[in-house]
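ok so for the tutorial part 2 we go from a plain amino acid sequence to predicted structure tokens. step 1 is just haveing the sequence, like this:
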Amino acid sequence: MIDLTTLADLTPGICSVTLRSYGIDDVVRISTEAGLAGIEWGTDVHVSDAASAHRARQATEEAGLAVLSLGSYYRAGAFSDFGRDLDLAEALGAPRIRIWAGELGSAVATADHWEAVVTDTRRIADIAAGRGIAVAFEYHGNTLTDSPATTLELLDRVNHGNVGTYWQPAVGLSDQQALDSLHEVLPHVVGVHCFSWGPAGERFPLRNRAGLWQMVADVLRGNGKDLDIMLEFVRDDLPENVLSDAVFLHALTLGED
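step 2 — the prediction. this is what the tokens look like for a chain of 257 residues:
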């Protein structure tokens, strides 16, 4: 018999980039209509300065939703000013900032690039820890976190308790390959981006990969660590597809078929 007391809670949320062409209030309204519990606010459009960060926080909290994280576009290894992202995260009330692991894929990255990403990540992780904010890598192609092996190598070299990683199924992988990649990085995963793409990046309803996402949810719940699972990039960027994908996401987080 499964011990339900040891299962992790999965918080169903959304990345604001999913609704990039909509304003803050519309993102909150659509998320509320979809019954989602939280939002990762991106710095690409919605949260670009102190005023928009305060507005996003206010609108999110007034709707009874949680701010899950700040989706930044900071590239570790650039040694640029991370203070702006920290200020936005604080104003937003975000517990975590998502960053990118450099700007080169692992197959072409030089030793110098690796060292720069490692050193800069340690630097910003220390600064963020001092302000009570965690840091996590985007798990993505054309960065050093483009495979489980390189993600683990990077995290091992950074070796910082304030740094984790997100996970998402890499485009073109079979369900089993994607699931295997999750198992490999699982101890370090602090959040999941959830979508259904074909091998050429075609967007489908989330339910089209029901088998994969049901297995992913089972693994995450069984891991015993509460985390966020966030919709990202629905078909045609349409609000009605957020609503329909959210129905399936809720079933996943509740452990329903």
